[in-house]
Amino acid sequence: MKYILLIGDGMGDTPVPELGGKTPLEAADKPAIDRLCAAAEPLLVRTVPDGYPPGSDVANLSLLGYEPEKYYTGRAPLEAASMGVAIPEDALAFRCNLVTVEYLDDDCMTMIDYSAGHISSEEAAELIAAVQEACGTDRLCFYPGVSYRHLLIHQGGGADSLRTVPPHDYMDQDVTEFYQQYLGVDYLAELMRISARVLADHPVNQRRQAEGKRPANSIWIWGEGKKPAMNTLQERHGISGSLISAVDLLKGLGVCSGLEVPEVEGATGWLDTNYQGKVDVALDALTRQDFALVHVEAPDEAGHQGSATNKVQAIEDFDAKIVAPIVEEMDRRGEPYRLVVTMDHYTPIARRTHEDWPVPMFIYDSSGVDQPAGTGYTEANIIAAAEQSGLCLDSGAAFFSRFVTPDASKYGERCG
């Protein structure tokens, strides 16, 4: 048996006026997903436990069958694992975004864009190198990642009491309160101010502004945590596999869970990502391994932007360029497989941030299921079908066990 987990990050939504009162999943043309869903087992799964932030870190950890209550230490340590960056025992890892902010005065700011206009990885690497040269110390070290997503390793004390927030939760909002937290730590205040000057004067940003693009004129640190300790999926479930994503966070989850994490040239985490490359790598992995996870970031990015058009396109691309070709090839091979299509969490366009609501998903089995949904894949359809069949699971661990060890007795608790 082969196991395939396909995640459209943040696909879930609420009705959007721009789409005639439909959600993006309802508005999108997604024939492959809808066909599979009609023949699949519908589930409603709580991926974010009560009291945990509804981010992709917690939710995807949960989708891989790990209980966040036991294993979650923060987002940045997972990204460090992906990048091969060691975290000393006395250190904190921080996610470091390159962002666009508006400075109202020396100590006040508004968050304009958490991604600095989806800055390219090449441009970002130059900027992070400049920040490291100007601000790096024996306590602070910066590492470049993908697009706007980077890493800061902070050694020694002094930052444990910081209250940090994800910049994508505060688009077009005043973030002075949070900025003041950094300014309350002497060496972090110096870091923020020096890095802002370095970024403002850098040729990359001068060129971007001349081209009408948003400058990456500030760093923003968040998602802090210490090194996690996780046993592998091979140890937990006896399966080998690969995780395919453009995003360091997901890659780090793959590393920590013992999966292979192949690089896909041209994978960007946006609408221009290399879909075919992801499909090719996943299908190759399934010739040698039991399990493949393919993660697509674009629906979540569109949700944070508040763009219904981009979110619908992201879902349609996910259907046509990921789900359809994988299913076509697996059917051609003729070996049994189980396939899940899901989101990790909701990212409603109206909110432009994540919600911790239970997520609708389905498990398609090439040999058939006992209680098929009989309907297309939308939030309302799956919620209704799952509640009718009783397949509401209270954790990602319950879902993953059901996925890889099918057993009608493993329904878990109703998630309400």
TrEMBL record:
Swiss-Prot/TrEMBL catalytic activity: (2R)-2-phosphoglycerate = (2R)-3-phosphoglycerate
Metalloenzyme domain boundaries: 1-367
UniProt pathway annotation: Carbohydrate degradation
Claim: Protein transport is one of the keywords in the record: no
Matches recorded under SUPFAM superfamilies: Alkaline phosphatase-like (SSF53649)
UniProt xrefs under Pfam families: Metalloenzyme (PF01676), PhosphMutase (PF10143)
GO terms (BP aspect): glycolytic process
Listed GO MF terms: metal ion binding; phosphoglycerate mutase activity
Documented EC number(s): 5.4.2.12
InterPro entries: Alkaline_phosphatase_core_sf, ApgAM_prokaryotes, Metalloenzyme, Pglycerate_mutase_ApgM, Pglycerate_mutase_ApgM_sf
Keywords: Glycolysis, Isomerase
Family of the protein in this entry: Belongs to the BPG-independent phosphoglycerate mutase family. A-PGAM subfamily.
Matching PANTHER family: 2,3-BISPHOSPHOGLYCERATE-INDEPENDENT PHOSPHOGLYCERATE MUTASE, COFACTOR-INDEPENDENT PHOSPHOGLYCERATE MUTASE
Physiological role: Catalyzes the interconversion of 2-phosphoglycerate and 3-phosphoglycerate.
NCBIfam families: apgM, hyp_Hser_kinase, PRK04200.1
Protein name according to UniProt: Phosphoglycerate mutase
